[in-house]
Amino acid sequence: MSALVFMALYRPKPGKEMELNEVLKGHITTLREEGLITDRELLTLQADDGTIIEIAEWKSKEAIDTAHQSPTVMAVWNQIGELAELTSLSTLAEAQYPFPNFKALK
Fold first, then answer.
1. What domains are there in the chain, each with its CATH number?
2. Which H, E and C letters describe 43-83, residue by residue?
3. Residue 2: what pLDDT?
4. Whole-angstrom Cα distance, residue 60 to residue 49?
5. Distance, CA of 72 to CA of 57 (rounded, Å)
6. Distances (CA, A) of 25 to 3, 4, 29, 36, 85
7. 90, pLDDT greater than 80
8. Model-level pTM?
9. What is the largest CA-CA distance in the chain?
10. What DSSP state is assigned to residue 16?
11. What pLDDT is attached to residue 106?
12. 17 burial class (0-12, 13-18, 19+ CB within 10 angstroms)?
């Protein structure tokens, strides 16, 4: 295993929650089809403010660069960018605590 685990945080834009969820259904599938992430089980969480957190594992550092050059991956990422604010853990109320808790979606 690569041990390059990523956490992607998406705060849905108002009224775009359902549409974002639909796009995210294909996100990890796309990354796997492109051979960029491992078969480690995806963990999908949700913060109290509605932010969705995806946790997955890259196959390698090179896979990260490849993802940014893939038209297929970039198309999905552009859709996500239209539907959500990309944010960080520090913006979440839960991050203020030593042991943050999130709702498991998957």
1. 4-104 (3.30.70.100)
2. EEEECCCCCEEEEEEECCHHHHHHHHHCHHHHHHHHHHHHH
3. 57
4. 32
5. 19
6. 23, 22, 8, 17, 17
7. yes
8. 0.91
9. 39
10. -
11. 72
12. middle
- For the record, the structure tokens of 39 come out as 């078969």
Kindly state the percentage of the chain with pLDDT values over 70. 98
Q: Model confidence over 35-84: pLDDT tens digits?
A: 999 999 999 999 999 999 999 999 999 999 999 999 999 999 999 999 99
Q: Which two tokens stand for residue 101?
A: 């808790």
Decide if 72 contacts 63 (C-beta within 8 A). Answer: no
Instruction: Output DSSP code: residue 13.
Output: P
Looking at residue 8, what is its pLDDT?
97
Residue 58: which region, alpha, beta or left (left: phi > 0; alpha: psi -120 to 50)? beta
Q: How many residues does the chain have?
A: 106
